[in-house]
Model the fold of this input.
Amino acid sequence: MNLILFVVALIASFIVVRIGAIAFQLTGLEWSLAKFQALSCFSGTGFTTREAELIVGHPKRRKIASILMVLGNAGLVMLIATFANSIRPRIAGASSWFGWLWRGFGPLVNLLVIAGTIYLTWRFFAKSPKAKVLTDYLRSKVKKSGIVEPVSVEELMVSSGGYGVVRTEIANDSPLAGRTLAESAFRQKDITILVVRRGDEPTANPPADTKIQSGDRLLCFGKLDKMREEFGGLEAETPAGG
Done:
């Protein structure tokens, strides 16, 4: 029974981490960073200071991280308890030859099953094409739940001082569509447009008279909070007492 509980808890932990990564991605975090940050929050390890700015500076991500941390602590306790009970020697049935055999080799068999389960579960989520099917299914469920609203800003990296690089696509109803870079006053907002990609044609260091069109993908550098506000990637945080 303890072995079954361990396997169930292990698989559930992987699924929770994947849901957390999806939630982070829907808030605009790049997928590889979203997976790493979800695993870091759940396990309580590997949470780097620089990349942590992407989490602590965003109200929705802080809530997601808090939930992952709580679930991670509870899951870790369950995994440790069920693991310890699974490999503990058993005395029951020791009067028969099978009982003596199981008493000696049972914990080893359980340990091999646990190791195999960990490896196969990791292989499935890290390597298997079916993991993408599961991820897409979980993403659709998270979107339908309305817990996390998807945004149009994908944050690729963060540097010191709250600056970072983001990628965004201009929607048809965006107020930026039809305006030039100069008219959009990005410079005054501490945002630098590095690349404008229209179809498969990228324009690096675009001039100020470049007109933005719907469907354009912009690669930008600047203050993350400013870019979230400009491109719709951040929900305003309610002031204390509001």
In short: The chain has two domains: 2-145, 153-231. The longest helix spans residues 97-127.
